[in-house]
Amino acid sequence: IPGDLALDRQTGLVQVAAAGVAESLRGHIHLLEMTVEDLEEYAGDLARQRQLLSERATMLRGFTGGSGLLDADGNAIAATPPTESWVGLNFADRDYFKQVRATGGPTVSGVFENRPTGEPAVVSAVPVQPAGAFAGAPVGGFTLGRPGWARPLHLPRRPPARRRTLAHRARNTTHSHPP
Question: 11: Cβ–Cβ under 8 A, 6 or more apart, which residues?
């Protein structure tokens, strides 16, 4: 395969993979947006908001790094299993929290080192804004080192290297070539 054709093929595969990841992230943001609609209904009722997040744990399990609810100051006030240990931690210094608070719109972070695990992660956040005032954000994380952080991409893969044999009938000779 000529170099340009191989590069074009690889570029196409990367574009397909990126489109799949983008679609997966949009779907996960939509889950957080649906959660926000209900959280806003219970503004000021922390117990009911925690209960709501707990009820949504199954729906939010696609966030392989966990999901939780941050208040307006960045404090984790609720979290789904297995990330209940987040409760009480402050995430106000994280870029995704700063961005969701500043823009008032959904955000997806860049890759960063997750604390306390140290694993690479990406976080989605959607603002809770009852009456237009920022009140916090549900967040969902993807731990990139764990399987399933994005929908499976069944892309064509090159078979393992093997030797091919070509027989030239005209000369009755056999040539062996690597792939």
Answer: none
Kindly report the CA angle at 15 between 65 and 95, in degrees rounded to 5?
Answer: 40
Where is pLDDT greater, at 17 or 7? 7
Q: Which phi-psi region, left, alpha or beta, contains residue 121 (left: φ > 0; alpha: ψ -120 to 50)?
A: beta
Contact predicate 67/137, CB 8 Å:
no
Q: CB 16: neighbour CB atoms within 10 A? A: 13
pTM of this prediction? Answer: 0.69
Describe the chain by its helix, strand, coil percentages, rounded to 5: 40, 25, 40
Q: Measured between alpha carbons, how far is 14 from 146 in angstroms, rounded to an integer?
A: 20
State how far Cα 83 lies from the chain centre: 16
- Residue 138: how many other CB atoms lie within 10 Å: 30
Question: Residue 48: CB partners within 8 Å, gap ≥ 6?
Answer: 42
Q: Identify whether the C-beta of residue 139 lies closer than 8 Å to the C-beta of residue 56.
A: no
